Write the structure tokens for this entry.
Amino acid sequence: MRSGGYLFLYGSLFYFLISAIYFIISKDPVGTTALVLTGGLAILIAFYLLFTVRRIGYQPEDNFEALQEEAPADYGFYSPHSWWPMIVAAATAITFVGLIFAVWIFLFGLGLVLFSVFGWLFEYWKFERVAPIRH
């Protein structure tokens, strides 16, 4: 993580330098703003990585001679055959098309996004009916 943090930090310095050169040569405010914002985003990522490495300490990816066995084995559960990510992507596309063309398409897409995110979130949830307690 430390090397990645420094990589993004050096990248932000590169973007700031290039934005100054770009502005001097072209006098284009839009491109210069985009380059400065890209440098700012790189600083945000660098700050997060360098702050996190201080909090969690040494990681195997910080050592160039580390072995694969030193990495943690469990990264979480990922569903191998889920259709929900594709449905979320399609619903998001419909929502953004609605932003361009019509409010009713946007609202329809927003409903689809909420439905599909709910479906993806509770894909493996088993809804069990709880019997009432009788005294």
Notes: The chain has two domains: 2-63, 84-121. The mean pLDDT is 88. The first helix runs from residue 2 to 26. The chain has four helices and no strands.
